[in-house]
Design brief:
The structure is a single chain. With 217 residues, the protein is an alpha/beta fold. The chain has a single domain, classed as Rossmann fold (3-Layer(aba) Sandwich), CATH 3.40.50.2000. The protein is built from 7 helices and 7 strands. It has a 7-stranded parallel beta sheet, sandwiched between helices. Helix 5 links the parallel strand 4 and strand 5. Helix 2 crosses helix 3. It starts with 7 loop residues before the first strand and ends in an 11-residue tail after the last helix. The relative contact order is 0.17.
């Protein structure tokens, strides 16, 4: 049997359209671009009218969204209606039916984070990404997302690991970075290098021979 090569990626974020109150958008934009440069199929998914987009529209109106589209013409993204419960799980089953890898921003909607982790399978690797760029979640909010259900958790700042050590087995907690600050509207040039490194880490994990579902999910 040949080595597993993850080619179809789905990226769930709070938003890639808006960076307002959501500095992780810079990272996920760079991550999608890094995947595209490798010739991989990647799409970003976010809820319609999410708080970051609403804040962008309040600040800049439609020109803010137009600027995003002009600056990232090759970025593939979808906006979807909010879902929860069984409806969300059923929709995700279809949305991820042909995916090899699902990436999830750790502070995306809680129901979504929980549901994607529950779908971890031998044929679908799932990775929770906590860049450390934004405000950390409260311990209870993080625990409710059940990060241990994921194939692995990837953190961009070493100090962010403390929040996960009691929730995720050490073998499935990985560090990437260092990440430059992305508080400004324009991403720092070195973010591209960080995104390339993150793609390499995830691809290496996904290629591992042991592709079993996490035992404690």
């Amino acid at each position: 049997m040949g080595q597993f090569e993850p080619r179809r990626w789905v990226i769930f974020t709070r938003s890639v359209i808006s960076t307002v109150g959501n500095p992780d958008a810079h990272l996920f934009r760079a991550l999608a671009a890094a995947l595209a440069r490798r010739g991989l199929d990647a799409v970003c998914v976010e809820e319609r009218a999410n708080p970051a987009v609403v804040a962008l529209l309040q600040q800049q109106g439609a020109r803010g969204v137009d600027a995003f589209r002009a600056d990232h013409p090759a970025l593939h993204y979808r906006t979807v209606p909010p879902r929860s419960g069984l409806e969300l799980v059923e929709w995700l089953g279809g949305a991820l039916a042909t995916a090899d890898v699902a990436l999830v921003q750790h502070d995306a909607p809680a129901d979504l984070v929980l549901a994607v982790g529950s779908l971890t399978r031998t044929h679908l690797q799932t990775y929770l990404i906590d860049s450390g760029l934004g405000a950390p979640l409260a311990p209870g909010e993080l625990a409710a997302r059940r990060p241990a259900a994921y194939s692995a958790v990837l953190i961009g700042r070493v100090d962010a690991a403390d929040a996960y050590r009691e929730l995720v087995p050490p073998a499935r907690l990985h560090h990437f970075g260092p990440l430059p600050s992305s508080d400004a509207d324009e991403p720092p040039p070195s973010l591209r290098e960080a995104a390339e490194g993150l793609v390499e880490v995830i691809a290496r994990l996904a290629r591992r021979g042991d592709r079993s579902v996490p035992a404690d999910r």
